Amino acid sequence: MKFFFFHLMPYSAVDLDAITDNTWIVFPNKHYDPKEGHKLYNRYLDELEYADQLGFDGVCVNEHHQTAYGMMPQPSVLAGALSRRTENAKICVLGRALPLTSNPLTIAEEYAMIDNITGGRLIAGFVRGIGCEYHAMMVNPGESLSRFHEAHDLIIEAWTKEGPFPFDGKHYRLQYVNTWPRPYQEPHPPVWIPSQGSAETMLWASHPDRKYTYLLTFSPTESVTKHLNTYSQQCEKYGYQCTPSQLGWAFPCYVAETDEIAKKEAGQHIENFFNKFLISPMQYKLPPGYSSLNSYKIVVESKFKARGSYLSIGSLIENGMFMCGSPQTVASQLEEYQSKMGFGNLVTMLQFGTLPHDLTKKNLELFSKEVMPKLRHLGNETGVAVAAE
Fold first, then answer.
1. For residues 143 and 147, what is the distance between their CA atoms, to the nearest angstrom?
2. Dihedral of alpha carbons 51, 252, 70, 199, sign
3. Which fold has domain 2-375?
4. 248 forms bridges with which residues in the sheet?
5. How far is CA 171 from the centre of its chain?
6. If you write DSSP's letter for every residue of 301-317 in order, what string do you get?
7. 3-class SS at 77?
8. Does the N-terminal or the C-terminal CB of the chain have fewer CB atoms within 10 Å?
9. Which residue has the higher pLDDT, 385 or 184?
10. How far is CA 318 from the centre of its chain?
11. Which of 295, 320, 338 shows the shortest CA–CA distance to 196?
12. What is the rounded CA–CA span in Å between residue 306 and residue 278?
């Protein structure tokens, strides 16, 4: 089993009373204080660097725009900072929203630079970006899927083909593709695909030409089990067996001395995360044309339905959207879930919402020292047993 510390870098200094029904796109930036931002950016980088010291296999950043939910509109800036301040952990950019860029070669260059600086410690995450991003960046959501595929193809070719060569696509046309520097890893850095359960993404990522790591994010465990098993079954339909390293699960988690202490310390902060930082109108989350009707139904049923009312810490623990308890409780739950899902990568969000630095540091220490060792033996490469219905 591989363990990763994922940070959203939320603007935790926000006035929570000012958040009524939305923290995305139109939530006024007058609520952002650069002096607080300065402190938070450096605090959050310290936490990511501490995870490297504690033995996490990777540290993760990602991309969001115009929101208090996460202060990383350009994750490669943070990944670049981490590349010189970490020694062993993989640096995972989960991920760059390919359809939002006007020139995907800039992403190929950014990733290649980080891969060179770290000597091959980059994991390249590619995403389409959630619906809100298309409003923020004024990109047609109806072109999202085709832009994503074309940008992906351009980046992979830029990494693997000898240049210069032309690229003539529908959305991107370049006469000279001649990437300097080339990636450190051969043929290119490993690619991860974070997803909310889109059927199109699942079919594409599992194809034998790619076999990318498929990462389910922030969903009830029933939904995660269903989607990871469906992904494994799709691999079998393609004629090969999915390995645990090809499957991942991302979720918030809090560990304390006892179950009671964990719930008491985390309760207010995880409820702030789900009921304040995550909220936005449905038309922002799922703009017309972004996905097929079938994928809309899957995402709404598996994820957004669970967020239709106030989410207490009790309900979040019950539906598996939040792991919380003593080291023994969390480890035993994760071992049970791994037997059902077959994942080999755990992407843990150990800071969430307004969780302060001292509790984040405590969470990192207890998880790394008392949970990770109990689970290291899981997720070997003998293949994934698909759970029976």
1. 6
2. positive
3. TIM Barrel (3.20.20)
4. 215, 345
5. 26
6. HHTGGGGSS---HHHHH
7. helix
8. C
9. 184
10. 22
11. 295
12. 12
Q: How far apart are the C-alpha atoms of 15 and 260, rounded to whole Å? A: 28
Q: Is 50 helix (H, G, I), strand (E, B) or coil?
A: helix
Of 290, 110, 125, 151, the C-alpha closest to 217 is 125
Q: What is the CA radius of gyration of the chain?
A: 20
For 49, 136, 296, the CA distances from 287, given in Å and listed in that order, are 36, 12, 10
Q: Tell if the pTM clears 0.70, that is, is over it.
A: yes
Amino acid at the residue 307? R
Backbone angles phi, psi at 345, to 5 degrees: -130, 120
Among 172-176, 285-289, 328-332, name the one with the lowest average pLDDT. Answer: 285-289
- Percent of the chain residues topping a pLDDT of 90: 86
Contacts of 140 (CB under 8 A, 6+ apart): 134, 289
Is the pLDDT at 335 greater than 50? The verdict is yes
Segments making up each domain of the chain, as ranges:
2-375
Exposed, middle or buried, 364 (CB in 10 Å: 0-12/13-18/19+)?
Answer: buried
pLDDT of residue 377: 95
CA-CA distance, 292 to 187, in Å (whole number)? 33
165: tokens are 């060569």
Residues with Cβ within 8 Å of residue 235, at least 6 apart in sequence: 206, 211, 241, 242, 246
- Crossing angle of helices 357-366 and 34-54, in 10° steps, is 10
Token pair for 141: 């959501």
Q: Is 181 helix (H, G, I), strand (E, B) or coil?
A: coil
